[in-house]
């Protein structure tokens, strides 16, 4: 099989074009500059070019495409949030996800699994019932189920969780899914490139030129760019960029770690999340168990993983699945989660004219990738916030009008 694949790869009869071009020098002027070549930045560039006809765009990335949080997440997709703003926003994202592979003509390994948020206490059951009612009211498929339904969907689970935290019920969200994160980044990158957008990797933004409260240009490690519009989509590096324009935000950065096991035969058909055990897990198309936990309890701009994390997460996994005691950990990693006080993002226009912010995604940015691209491209193109992001503006912290999503995002997933 390996020899046949090699013959196919080297055959001139089956040429495979590059995913996207490698642009040369930076132009002197662009209609818009997007900082960050992750999922959100590339999706915004893609929809700006496709839906709004803006093609003279530069996407600047200090590292490599998809090398930040887009490539460091656990790929869970859902819309079972708690606030009306959050539910409507993420539900639109789930709708966009379902057609994304056809848009790209690229297999994203999108897999509908169903999503169980486990409840281990009476108060957690009440919260799940509350979320289910909010979801139903807004047309999202979620329901409160009992422990027997969890056992039916996943016979391997120990409902007593080792006697530490017995499962009393769960919020079941049928549309819950997973997708291949790097394929999403490359799909948006290729689509943007095909429409004329330039993606400049290894290009660091060192400053943003602001005059009279308006964006005038961007200083980079490869020269100066004149532009009237800058979109910041850099996740854990957001405070560094907002500092360049003199903008204060309530964002704080925490490491968020994850790990995967060695591949094994498929057995976990659904997605399981436990706020009490601080764990979420699904099985990838390659058979790996993809696992994560809550944020590290300290502020740190670092992607270094720790032994304490893997020991704690492994112990909680064994509470749920004792038969995994011989499973081997293949690798672990960390990302930098940009957290806000109300666990909702900061999106849209800012007090600096021409500077747009897509940040504060914390642990739930991957699932919002398509809808962020749609709404931020609209916002940049029209210089007014898209209706779906009205509840996510930066001014809400000054006006004490928070969008409290902690009840639906209290575990890092």
Q: Could you describe the 3D structure shown?
A:
The mean pLDDT is 95. This protein has helices at 2-10, 39-52, 84-104, 122-137, 147-153, 181-194, 238-244, 307-320, 369-382, 396-399, and strands at residues 32-35, 57-60, 76-77, 111-112, 115-119, 142-145, 169-173, 177-178, 198-200, 205-211, 214-220, 223-226, 230-232, 252-261, 271-274, 279-283, 289-292, 329-339, 346-349, 355-359. The protein contains 10 helices and 20 strands. It is globular. It folds into 2 domains: 26-72 and 182-251 and 342-408, FAD/NAD(P)-binding domain (3-Layer(bba) Sandwich), CATH 3.50.50.60; 112-177 and 253-337, D-Amino Acid Oxidase, Chain A, domain 2 (2-Layer Sandwich), CATH 3.30.9. The longest helix is centred in the first third of the chain and has 21 residues, at 84-104. 29% of the residues lie in helices and 23% in strands. It has an 8-stranded mixed β-sheet with strand order 6-7-5-15-16-17-14-18. The protein is of the alpha+beta class and 413 residues long. α2 runs parallel beside α6 (181-194), α2 (39-52) crosses α9 (369-382) and α3 (84-104) packs across α9 (369-382).
Task: Describe the structure in brief.
Helices cover about 30% and strands about 25% of the residues. By secondary structure, it is α+β, with helices and mostly antiparallel strands.
